[in-house]
Amino acid sequence: MASNNPNTDTPLFPAELTDLVVDASRNDRQALAAYALVCKQWTPRSRYHLFERAAIFADNARQFISLLSSPHCTFATAICELDISLAASGSHRWFTEFSRRLLPILAKVSNLHGLAISGSRNAVIRQLDEDSGAREALIAFGRQNQTPSQITALKLGPVTFESLVDFVDVLSAFPDLHTLACAAHFQDATQPEPHGEIRVFPQVTTIDLASPSTNYLLGLLLNQGILPNVTNLSLSRLTGGDLSALTPFLHNPNNNALQNLVIKFDSIFSGVSFDLFAQRVDMTQLRALRHLVVETAPDMPSGPAYTLLSTISWTGIERLEISLLLTEELTCIDNLLTSARFSTLKEVTILSASFVEAGQFLPLCAARNILQQV
């Protein structure tokens, strides 16, 4: 195969042809890695096949640093997200060393905007001690102010923080954060003083929470005055405690920002009945809601579903996705969704049924041409 001449600025192959070669090899990760390291004419589109999201774990962290440190490295600007796994035993030690070696060369990763930390509840992110500097290493990612990188999206999997206050310290290290996803556990869930801990957070627009963090973070974000400014909120694996924490936010009369709400609820997992769920999720005060997703297991009966949807007083909702138990009792919901209150509704998707099945039980929605295929 011909290659670029290192002694001239004129490549033997045009960039478009190099792209075609790389595209044809997209499933050969070894070849892609070789191209990434040596081909200076490799255009960004091809680099994304392998490096847009870089997954880092104990077995490849040293190799990643070695490649990134090379003067011939061409994939640095293609990296948009680092996904770091702390699942293996001893992860804190290699993560601390990895961070120490990465931060001085992080300026090369000029398009980095996402950081994800995954692991298990056994991975405890604690304050610096002789065994673990994971907390300080994580904070250092947010405080790399001398590089062009700006972490705008932070995702924390089911890892464990010693305290909610420690978690807040980590959040405060990311001044440009727009998106936060969290499923972390907190050994000490004592809430910090309102407005006393998080110094930079008003630009966060997207929150994605999953149990066991939902209960604590809903309270934290509401107390800090952050939650009412969020435009996209996603809640998964809700428990009874999570629903109790959600209620004060839903009853807030100043809910003029939330446009997209996603709720994933398992009645058996949570131990909460559908009737109680529908009562707790009162959307009367949501005055900007445009897209609602309610995904349940098992499918929600018509009674609780009608109670839930009846609380929507805002007349600007455009999209609805919901799990419904298909029975003859869905007539009341069919009438509701085609009433004047939902005049702006453009799409209705029944997550638990095919288009044909849903049309049999929601004929008015089908006739209005708003029923959508899953």
UniProtKB/TrEMBL annotation:
Superkingdom as given in the UniProt entry: Eukaryota
SUPFAM superfamilies per record: RNI-like
UniProt-recorded name of the protein: Uncharacterized protein
Organism: Psilocybe cf. subviscida
